[in-house]
Amino acid sequence: MNRSISGRLIAKDLYLYRWLIIAAVLIGTAALPLMRLGPGDGVRSGVNLGMILFITNVIVLGIFIVMYGVLKERQDKTSLFILSLPVSPMQYTTAKVGAALLAFLAPWLLLTGGTIALILLSDTAPDGGIPSFAAMMTFFLCNFCVLLALVLVTTSEQWAIAGILITNFSVPVFLSIVLNLPDISAFRRAEAAVWSPTVLAIIAISLAIAALSLTLAYYVQSRRKDFI
């Protein structure tokens, strides 16, 4: 019975997220042609436009999922009604996390896989850009999980806004500093993808932080007496 309700809660959230998922896939797909323009006038601005649109699309998707699906539900007191059902607080948390992750990972996987496939099939885009792109997308996934965990455990809108500002501020830092490390930038224009130790370390650290943040969120939730 409880498992059935948990599944229905996930389905309910995914239904609410449906337009966010569709919009993210469509916008991300529309940005791909701009990112693969070949040599010619205005190419640099075209590539920048495509990358900016692509990055913004992924970031905004994560923010909207967390704010609309978790924070707004708490502000509207919808969670009070849901917790009156035969479902435990931890099952409720699992349903929220599961739905949010599915809503983010579906477009994330499509756009990540589609972009890598586009690079591999392109005659102009070097395969050396694949590792740095994979590291960037993994970082975005990490950012989303950190923000989701923060909003799950806090009842303060101010903390949620602070989380959005901090995770967004980390993006230009990552793009300007981390992706320009010598061990990464040296291979970005290589003909073949080079998975340097630095790239692998960034991917591993991002995944570890994502997992740790969600684990800590579950732990904090399990220790709280007042769940709402």
What can you see in these coordinates?
The chain is mainly α and 228 residues long. The chain has one domain. It contains eight helices and no strands. It has helices at residues 2-35, 43-75, 78-82, 89-121, 129-153, 157-176, 182-185, 197-223. Helix 2 (43-75) runs parallel beside helix 5 (129-153), helix 4 (89-121) packs antiparallel against helix 5 (129-153) and helix 5 (129-153) runs antiparallel to helix 6. The radius of gyration is 19 Å and the shape is globular.
Order of helices and strands: HHHHHHHH
Broad structural category: mainly alpha
Contiguous low-pLDDT stretches (5 residues minimum) are: 37-47
Q: Write down the Rg.
A: 19 Å
Q: How many DSSP E strands?
A: 0
Beta-strand share of residues: under 5%
Present the secondary structure layout.
Elements: H1 2-35, H2 43-75, H3 78-82, H4 89-121, H5 129-153, H6 157-176, H7 182-185, H8 197-223
Helix pairs in contact: 1-2, 1-4, 2-4, 2-5, 2-6, 4-5, 4-8, 5-6, 5-8
